[in-house]
Amino acid sequence: MIARSLRATAVAAALTAAAVVSVPSSAHADNGDGRPDCAHGEICFWYNAGNTYQKQFWYTGDHGGNNFMYYNGSVYRESSERVQDNALHVTNRDTQCRIRVGDLSGGLWTWRYFPNDNGRYHLGEINNRNDRHERCV
Ligand SMILES: [Ca+2]
Ligand SMILES: [Ca+2]
Questions:
Q1: Residue 29's pLDDT is what?
Q2: From the CA of 37, how far away is ligand 1's center (Å)?
């Protein structure tokens, strides 16, 4: 009986370890609602002044490891264009708050703040330098 419960504990511990390991990949999996348009609640980055390449998030996140998405009329897929240091515009459709977008350079963050007003804003001095965005700060 004791051996059996120890084994169950070991299995539970192994499952916990696996869950912890999987966190970084799920953090990079934030793709908003998984659909092309910048929907209510999403934070949307634009590669250029056009609409083809976008990347959308629900949550605060680092931009490293994310690529812009594009929609070819039938399939919504990932492009080869990275998001980090490569975005021009942002639209904040967060349901609750403003966001800030930052560039980390020389150990210091430069932040720009954007209201959740559905406007499409140029990233200013941090365009093509964006490393991260944060909600409600
Ligand atoms: Ca979307
Ligand atoms: Ca940067």
A1: 86
A2: 4
Range of the domain at 59: 31-135
Given a contact cutoff of 8 angstroms between Cβ atoms, the answer to whether 64 and 131 are in contact is yes
**Cα 105 to averaged position of ligand 1 atoms, centre (Å):** 30
| 126/88 same-domain check | yes
Retrieve residue 88's tokens: 């021009």
Whether 65 and 102 share a structural domain:
yes
What's the domain count of the chain? 2
Whether residue 45 sits in one domain with residue 69 = yes
Q: What mean pLDDT value characterizes the chain?
A: 87
Residue 123 CB neighbour total at 10 angstroms: 19
Same domain, 114 and 54: yes
Taking the model in full, what pTM does it have? 0.80
Residues around ion ligand 1, judged by CB within 5 A, are: 32-33, 35, 39, 56
- For residue 63, what are its two tokens? 């931009």
